[in-house]
Amino acid sequence: MDPPATYRCRNCQTPIAYRDELLSKSYMVVVDPFGIQAKTGQAFLFSDARNIVFGQKQETNLITGVYTIASIFCSNCGEELGWKYLQASEARQKFKEGKFILELSKISKHF
Length: 111
Ligand SMILES: [Zn+2]
Fold this sequence. Notes:
Pfam families: Yippee-Mis18
Number of helices: 0
Strand content: over 45%
Structural class: mainly beta
Keywords: Metal-binding, Zinc
GO molecular function, one term: metal ion binding
CATH superfamily: Peptide methionine sulfoxide reductase
Bound molecules: zinc ion
Domain Yippee: 5-111
Family: Belongs to the yippee family.
CATH topology: Metal Binding Protein, Guanine Nucleotide Exchange Factor, Chain A
């Protein structure tokens, strides 16, 4: 049996998430341009992630509302990979709580 496809840190190839943890590919990262992490790009939503360390908790304005998030970093090389949603202000966004955003530019898929 083939091992499951993994999404790995593009920098050091540490496995971060598995294919069956991928919830959505339709995310765009558009963080508050006046905030500290102005950037845009495609991102994936995952139900779980491993081999990561968390940065400081912070509030951030995304298109869909205000969230409390924590940046996530590769535990091996320290590269910033995305963030975890800790809390969502909008009731219809609550499903994102506890889930992980990985930026496509920071991960690569391995089969
Ligand atoms: Zn890494």
